[in-house]
Structure formats: structure tokens, C-alpha cells
Amino acid sequence: MIEVRNLTKRYGDLIAIRDISFTAANGQILGFLGPNGAGKTTTMRVITGFMPATSGTVKVAGYDIFDDSYEVRKRIGYLPESPPLYGDMTVTSYLRFVGRIRGIAKAELSDSVDRVLHTCGLADVTERVVGHLSKGFRQRVGLAQALIHNPSVLVLDEPTIGLDPRQIIDIRTLIKELAGERTVILSTHILPEVAQLCEKVVIINEGRIAVEGVLAELTQGKTLEQVFLNYIAKEPADGHAAAEEATA
Amino acid sequence: MRNALAIAGKELRSYFVSPIAYVVLTGFLLLGGWFFFNLLARFNFLLSIYSAMRNPEAQTRLNLNEFVISPLLHNLSVVLVILVPVITMRSFAEEKRSGTYELLMTSPLSITEIVAGKFLGAFAFLLIMIGLTGIYPIILLLYGNPELGIIASGYLGLLLLATAFVTVGLLTSSVTENQIIAAVSCLVILLLMYVIAWPADTSGPVLGAVLKYVSLTEHFSEMVKGIIDTKDLVYFASVILLSLFLTQRSVESVRWR
Questions:
Q1: CB pair distance less than 8 Å for B102 and A80
Q2: Do A73 and B108 touch (CB under 8 A)?
Q3: Inter-chain CB pairs, A–B, below 8 Å
């Protein structure tokens, strides 16, 4: 469903991600883990077609993100790190606007808006101005925006960041419900979230894939924290270890 | 087209839910009204002097088009140089800053649709702005006898001029995420295009002709005089299309490898 192959993204001299490859199957929730600045957001921006990669390819539902960008964008729902909201619109008018630019026919627009208002628990704030909503509600509007055209692929960049515990539980439940037939890529650095939601895990560190695998196989009795720290530490630690051996 | 209209509608609404639209419209109409009032007062003054001097020849040379409408349109065009950058500065810069750019760019929209939508939204606002100043010629038509054709030609000129301003504003907004930079660079470009013909008379025949051709005001002045010439229409169309094309390229450049 999502196939990332040899992706490299350079900003001038800075290499944000190098030679990244992984796949996510239909209906899978893939946890995309990594410390801050590891290249998670960059990868997601490339997958969603927001920015091109320096080299490498991404295929979503069989379409190449560079050659068939339009087809890919039709099928992806994307919640960026900060929800892309127009602060001066009401929740309903915002969602109607997003629905229209995502190509929903006028006749179905009201139904689609009602559907996401319901799934994201926004029924009570439909006429509120987006800019006046609390952070939790804004995050939900952001999620509603990503779901409105019923995409087969969802890309969520840290969807639970800055929410209170109850809201986090709500959003997690929602993501789990949403998965079903959809493919979800979930970027986060909250490990319990991954342990609860994801079947598959990709850990990225300093722009490289540290490990890709099924969650159960990776942990095998260990906690995800241990696995994560192990892989994050691995590369620099290897270098250090080698250097220490050399001096010893 | 449907997508472009959706964006245009959103743009137009966002002007009116923020105070920008009201501040700009109030300022524009306030200044316009002041110009109109003073031009009319001067006209009346001249009229009374000439009739007191019993100078029928000078009196016939006094006409509303030349003494009220024409300077009014020129003054309004100067105000537009300052206000249009304020209208257009948000168009792309704010989307980039607030992160909604990601929404637009990852939606199944073509860049042309995005640019067309932004342009139509700003253009619709411009129509409202210039349309509201239509009250001044209407007053003249009710109480005097200006020539309608010249007024229409002048207004068409003002609309074309302002549309060209808007496209320049979209271009500068598309290259930055800072609204101030977008507005200031637009203002500087517009002022420059306004005064570029100043050295035309002293800079030799060829360069002079080139400078005059590039200047927005030269073409605008012709239309205010009531002359609708194809070369002026072609000039405005070229400026508008070129700026829109460059805007399209600049927005698209995010997607280039």
C-alpha cells in the first residue's frame, strides 16, 4: 500500500533523511518512531507529496508520488504536526472548504461533513470559530480534515501531542477504529502509544532507518523503551565502541 | 474551476471576517470622498469665478470629466498603490506561516487552480472596492452632465491598473512567508513602475520610449482621457498574465526536485 524506497532528502548541505526504505501493508498501522529531528516530519512530507525527495521513490496505492502526485493526493489524508487550520473560519465552514478542495461532490458534502463531525466528536462545536477552540478540539478538527474524503491512507504526524490524557485516549481509540481497511502511518515519540496501536514499527534515527519490523517480534519480552533506546544508541555507540577498542 | 472558486470564496470570506477588509474599505472610501469633495469644490469655485468674470470661453473649457473625474481616478490609483499590497500580502505568506499551505499543497489541486483561486478572491475584493467609488460619478451624473464614455473608459483603466497591482502582490506574497516583506516589496515594485517614466523625456528617444511603455501610469492616463487603445489593453494583459505566470512558477517550485 505504501512503499518507500531509497528515499533521500537534502536541504542544501544538510541531509535530513538518507536512503530510507520501508513498506506498510493494507490495513496496517505503522508506528514511525524516532527522536526529535530524526527526519520523521520530512519523510511524511515527502510521502504526502508536499515536498519532493532528492532521490528515491514513494508509491502509494501503486501510484508514484512524483509522477502521479495527483492520484496519490486524492487518496491520502494528512494531519501535519500543527493542524492546518484557518483560525477565522467556523468548524463547519472549514470542513466544507476542505471537502471541496479534496474533490467531494457538492451533493455529498454535507453528509461527509456530518460524518467526520460525528466520528471526531465535534458535534457540539460545529459553529465555533476554529481559532477559539482548545488545543484538543483543534487537533480533532485537524483529524476530521484528514478524514473528510474517506482516504485509504492516513498520515498522522504526532496526532496526540499536547493533549490531555483523556483526549489522548479518545484520539487513540479513534485511530484504532479508523484503521480497519485503511493504512495508517503514525509518527510519534510516545512509545506506549505505539505499543497500543501499531502492528509494525519503523525506528528512524539521524535520518536513517534503525530498524523495521513487526512490533511483537522486535520486543520479544523486552519493553519497547528498551528496544527503542537500544536502536537509537546503536549507531553512535558502535562508533564509540570501535574507537574505545582501538585505543584499548 | 470548481476548486478555484472554492478557494476564491474562502479568500473573499477571510477578508471580511478579519478587520482588514473594513479598514481598507473605510480608508479607501474616506480618502476617495475627500478627493471628490475637494475636486468638486474647486470646480465650483472656478465656475463661479469664470461666470463672475463673464468669460464664457473659459467656462466652456471647464468640464467635469477633466476637472473632477480624471484627477479623482489618478488620486485613487495612488491610494491603490498603497492599499493593494495590504490586500494581497496575506494570500500565500500567511498560508505558509500558519501551516495551511501543507493542506493546500497536499490536496488534489493543481497549482493553477490555487493561483487562480487566490487571484479571483483578491479580484472580487477589488471589484467591491472600486465599485463602491462608483457613487462619485453617479452623483455627477445626477447633478451635472459629464461624459459617460470617458468615465467608463477611466474606470476600466483603474480596474485594469489595480488588477495588475493585485497580480504583482500575489507574486511577492508567493515568494516569502513574511507578510511585511510581501507587502513592502510589492509596494516598492508598484511605486517603481509608477515613476519609471520620469526620466523618459531626458533620456533619449529609444530609452525614453521604452520607459514610457513600461510605466503603468502612461497607459492608465490614456484610458482616463477616454482613449481605449489596443496597445494599452495589451500592456495591462501582459503585466497581469506575466505576474500570474511567475506566481504559478514560484508556487510550483516547492514541488521541484
A1: yes
A2: yes
A3: 75
Fold of A2-247: Rossmann fold (3.40.50)
- Domains of chain A, by residue range, sit at 2-247
ipTM of the complex: 0.87
Question: Cβ A50–B105 below 8 Å, yes or no?
Answer: yes
Cβ pair B103:A50 closer than 8 A: no
469655485: which residue's cell?
B45
**Rounded to whole angstroms, what are the CA distances from B21 to A91, A157, B8, B163?**
22, 35, 15, 17
DSSP state of A88: T
Per-residue model confidence (pLDDT) at position A91: 96
Of A51, A83, A100, the CB nearest to B6: A100
Q: In what order do the strands lie in the sheet with A153-157?
A: A76-79, A153-157, A183-188, A29-33, A200-205, A208-214
Question: Nearest C-alpha of chain B: how many angstroms from A48?
Answer: 6
pLDDT tens digits, A72-91: 999 999 999 889 999 999 99
Interface of B with A in 214-233 (CB under 8 A): none
Q: Is the pLDDT of residue B257 over 90?
A: no
Q: The C-alpha cell of B34 is what? A: 475627500
Specify the pLDDT at position A176: 86
Phi and psi at residue A186, in whole multiples of 5°?
-120, 115
Q: Show the cell assigned to B42.
A: 474647486
User: What is the structure's pLDDT at A166?
Assistant: 85
Stronger pLDDT, A166 or B117, i.e. the higher one: B117
Q: Is A94 on the interface with B (CB under 8 A)?
A: no
Q: What is the pLDDT of residues A47-77, one digit of tens each?
A: 999 999 999 999 998 899 988 999 999 999 9
Q: For residue range A10-29, what is the model confidence (pLDDT) as tens digits?
A: 988 889 999 999 999 988 89
Closest CA to A187 of A69, A48, A68, A58: A48
Distance of CA A232 to the CA centre of its chain: 20
**Interchain contact A131–B (C-beta under 8 A):** no
Judged by phi (left if over 0) then psi (alpha if -120 to 50, else beta), residue A8 lies in: beta
Domain ranges of chain B: 2-255
